[in-house]
Design a protein that fits this description.
This protein is of the alpha+beta class and about 90 residues long. It contains two helices and two strands, in the order αββα. It has one domain. The chain has a two-stranded antiparallel sheet with strand order 1-2. Strand 1 and strand 2 form a beta hairpin. The termini are far apart.
């Protein structure tokens, strides 16, 4: 799955796609789990790719776990923080 540099996979706002349950995974005794080949291929995940593990808590317990490509997480952070940083820098000058 080839992507252009800077071409984000995850849309936000009105272009955001709906989430869905794609597969179920089991955790083995060593804490490892396997993502099905079909899902890895659709997501373009290859050996050596880095995924960030993001968790949400409710009532003191982790309720949701999400995997986000590290490059996508960086892009999302820049998209979120960029305008705020520009505003802060313009107020300082």
């Amino acid at each position: 799955m080839a992507r252009a540099k800077g071409d984000g996979m995850c849309a936000t706002g009105k272009d955001a796609a709906c989430c869905r349950v794609d597969s179920m995974v089991s955790v083995d005794s060593r804490g490892q789990m396997v993502l099905r080949k079909e899902l890895r291929e659709r997501a373009g995940i290859r050996a050596g790719d880095q995924l960030a593990v993001v968790t949400w808590e409710a009532q003191g317990k982790v309720c949701c776990i999400s995997l986000i490509r590290v490059d996508e997480l960086g892009r999302m952070a820049k998209q979120f923080l960029g305008p705020m940083m520009k505003t802060m820098m313009s107020k300082e000058g």
